Automatic annotation (TrEMBL):
High-level lineage: Bacteria, Bacillati, Bacillota, Bacilli, Bacillales
Protein name per the record: Uncharacterized protein
Domain of life: Bacteria
């Protein structure tokens, strides 16, 4: 459920046309893009884990 958006992102960034578009950027631009993507995905993972942990605690409390 919550992991599906992350799976969608992984599928999207592994598409061949994304690789071709990536080549149009300079190396410093690519590094900046990847850094931003990493930050976004890290935030998303923290959110998913926090929701999972909260849901698990609520489930175990009942």
């Amino acid at each position: 459920m919550l992991i599906e958006p992350l799976q969608d992102v992984c599928r999207l960034i592994s598409r061949p046309e994304i690789e071709e578009e990536r080549k149009t950027y300079t190396v410093p631009q690519q590094e900046e893009i990847f850094s931003l993507m990493k930050e976004i995905m890290t935030d998303d993972m923290h959110f998913v884990l926090a929701v999972y942990n909260r849901t698990e605690k609520e489930y175990l409390a009942h």
